[in-house]
Amino acid sequence: MAKLGFHLLCILFTFSFSTVHPRTISPATTVSTSELDVTDSIQKSLNVLSFSPQPQQSQMLTSSELSSSSSSSSILSLQLHSRVAVHKSSHKSYESVTSARLARDSARVESLQTRLDLAVNGVKKSDLKPVDTELSVENLEVPVVSGTSQGSGEYFCRVGIGHPASQAYMVLDTGSDVNWLQCAPCADCYQQADPIFEPASSSSYSPLTCEAHQCKSLDVSECRNGTCLYEVSYGDGSYTVGDFVTETLTLQGSTTVENIAIGCGHNNEGLFVGAAGLIGLGGGRLSFPSQINATSYSYCLVDRDSDSASTLEFNSPIPHDAITAPLLRNTKLDTFYYIGLTGISVAGQLLNIPSSTFKLTNDGNSGVIVDSGTAITRLQTEAYNVLRDAFTKGTKELPAATGVALFDTCYDLSKRKSVQVPTVSFHFTNGKKLDLLAKNYLIPVDSSGTFCFAFAPTSSSLSIIGNVQQQGTRVSYDLENSVIGFSPNKC
Q1: Which ranges in 74-149 belong to alpha helices (H)?
Q2: Measured at the alpha carbon of residue 266, what is the angle toward residues 262 and 272, in degrees to the nearest 5?
């Protein structure tokens, strides 16, 4: 089968801790401090409220345009746009943006933890079967941009749905498998940036039967007049219900992908912030990467307060200079991407957190996942306390501020232009480590100079590396070789 080149435009949960002294890492490989540009961070927080977005037109691509684009195998360099290019923020202050984002983030984390608990306990177990249709995919490229201006931490992409294609913004989510979008007629639909998709206007719209393997791969499905109905609930009050169908997706007007199983939701509610629906990037059978038989994909999430964008790419190799880590899978739940994390260091000192804290156990509990939809990294409470105490020990000279929401460690940097803070690093089971930049763990919560340590405790055994720690770094998922790669400044 001929190779296809794809392109998308995107906006984008009790251990005992010993008291022995931390271990020192070899000085040759240690970065002990990182500089935070306070002035730049504050200015970006102000800019979020003053962006003047230019709404995208809902373009309908003709048959000839689709035919021409789908036959092209060239790699395109695409302009990237942020979520703020679609809607101006309704928030009156950056503090309000932060409050909304953290509330949404807490709901997101609870949803992920609940889903894992259900899977570990054998509740609503999926009967997964492989999809018959095979595609040869090469270098699918997708721009990714921040959605912070709407008080949300998600990232979005521009995708064409149907034939002819209607353009729509879709949430990108590594913690989900089922693709879906809002469809007319709407029994209950939330507000979105583009017109609601009209199935009757698409010649490629095709309902799936109840016996179709895609239908049987759903966690929750029903049968009506011989056709498949789906339901997806995210545990935070968000849900979508409708017809499960196959459709053609057009990726940035260049290449079409046919027969993609996608939910056509007529009853939808949730905090999707203007997006028409969701593209699932998880590890399950129904996710977009699985359906196109992608061997890998990568993304670079732009700064949460930026109106610029980056790309999401499929079947592109991990950069040769990437910091790699083992990609692990949970036999109880194939959606999540687990990473082989063994420890955390602060200012070159490896903290006294037992490596078992981060280990994925045989029963499917514990472990650490990398998630694009969670903003703030969550660590088991005991691990978080050790990390926080080490960080505050190294920032005694910084004036403290009152905690904000889930953040208990904050600073008043209103009189500083820049500060040096201890470097936080992740250590992986293959011996490699990732040094985070200060802006990836000390973030503004208002526009007045209050910054908080962007980690949070969780009572769950599941730890999550969120998107604040991923921003500005290309994160690659080599699905074929079970490797995750981190490439700082490769956006």
Answers
A1: 94-120
A2: 75
Q: Is 199's pLDDT higher than 60?
A: yes
Angle, to 10 degrees, between the axis of helix 38-47 and the axis of helix 94-120? 90
- Phi and psi dihedrals of 345, rounded to 5? -125, 155
Beta-carbon count within 10 A of 85 CB: 22
Give the number of other Cβ atoms within 10 Å of residue 402's Cβ: 9
Pair of tokens at residue 144: 């990714």
DSSP string, 371-421: -SS--SEEEEHHHHHHHHHHHHHTTTTSPEE--BTTB--EEE-TT-SEEEE
By annotation, the residues acting in catalysis are 173, 371
Given this model, what pLDDT does residue 53 score?
52
Q: What span, in angstroms and rounded, lies between the C-alpha atoms of 175 and 178?
A: 10
Identity at 205, one-letter amino acid code: Y
pTM score? 0.84
Contact 7, 254 (CB under 8 A): yes
Distance CA 217, CA 130 (A): 8
Cα separation, 158 vs 97, whole angstroms: 23
For the chain, the farthest-separated pair of C-alpha atoms sits apart, in whole angstroms, at 69
Residue 79 CA to its chain's centroid (Å): 21
pLDDT digit string (tens) for 33-82?
999 999 999 898 888 777 655 544 444 433 334 333 333 332 222 233 44
Give exposure, 282-315, as e/b (b: 16+ Cβ within 10 Å).
bbbbbbbbbbbebbbbbbbbbbbbbbbbbbbbbb
Peptide bond into 185 cis (omega under 30): yes
Q: What angle do CA 268, 269, 270 make, to 5 degrees?
A: 135
Give the burial class of 267: count Cβ atoms within 10 A of its Cβ; 0-12 exposed, 13-18 middle, 19 or more buried.
middle
Q: For residue 22, is the peptide bond before it cis, meaning its omega torsion is within 30 degrees of 0?
A: no
Kindly report the average pLDDT of the chain as a whole number: 80
H or E element that contains 215: helix 213-216
Q: Which residues pair with 134 in a beta bridge?
A: none
Query: Distance between CA 276 and CA 77 in Å, rounded?
Result: 25
Burial 316-354 (b: 16+ CB within 10 A, else e): bebeeebbbbbbbebebbbbbbbbbbbbbbbbbbbbbbe
Q: Contact, 193 vs 86, CB < 8 A?
A: yes
